[in-house]
Design a protein that fits this description.
By secondary structure, this protein is α+β, with helices and mostly antiparallel strands. It is 17% helix and 33% strand. A four-stranded antiparallel beta sheet has the order 1-2-3-4, covered by helices on one side. Strand 1 and strand 2 form a beta hairpin. The longest helix is centred in the middle third of the chain and has 13 residues.
C-alpha cells in the first residue's frame, strides 16, 4: 500500500463515531465529512478532524485547515491506526466565540506499538465556519 492510499478502518454509517460521542458515524462526524453539516463549536470540529484521521479523509482535513497554515497536501501513515480521543480541556470555541482552543490526547498504534499524540490546538472562524489554525507551543 502506498502512503497516498491509507487503509481505511471499518467505519460504516451505523458504527459508533470514532470521536467518542456515542452517536452513529452518519449522525455525527460523517455529516461533517460529507458536507451535510458544519461543526458548531471548536470542540466538534476537533472531534470531526480526529474522525477524519481515523477514516483517512484528507480532503476534509485540508478543507477544515486555515488557509494561512494549511499544507499543500497530506500523506497519512498507512500503518497508523487511531484508537481513541480524549478531550482534556477547551477555552472559548462556542457558537458565541470567534476563536477557541481544544487540548486533547489522540491515541494510536503504529506497527503494533501503542502511543499517543498530545496537542493544544487553536481554532478560529473563517467565513462563519470553524477551522483549525495551529498548535500552541508546549507550556
Amino acid at each position: 500500500m502506498s502512503k497516498n492510499k491509507p487503509r481505511r478502518p471499518a467505519v460504516t454509517p451505523a458504527t459508533p463515531c470514532p470521536c467518542g460521542s456515542g452517536e452513529p458515524y452518519r449522525d455525527c462526524c460523517g455529516g461533517c465529512h460529507q458536507g451535510r453539516t458544519a461543526a458548531p463549536t471548536a470542540e466538534r470540529l476537533m472531534r470531526s478532524r480526529y474522525s477524519a484521521f481515523v477514516v483517512a479523509d484528507t480532503g476534509y482535513l485540508l478543507r477544515t485547515w486555515h488557509p494561512t497554515t494549511r499544507p499543500g497536501g497530506l500523506d497519512l501513515e498507512p500503518a497508523q491506526r487511531w484508537t481513541g480521543l480524549e478531550i482534556l480541556g477547551t477555552t472559548g470555541g462556542s457558537a458565541f466565540h470567534t476563536e477557541g482552543t481544544v487540548e486533547f490526547r489522540a491515541h494510536y498504534t503504529l506497527h503494533g506499538q501503542a502511543d499517543s499524540q498530545y496537542e493544544h490546538s487553536r481554532f478560529v472562524r473563517e467565513n462563519g465556519l470553524w477551522v483549525y489554525l495551529d498548535a500552541l507551543p508546549p507550556a
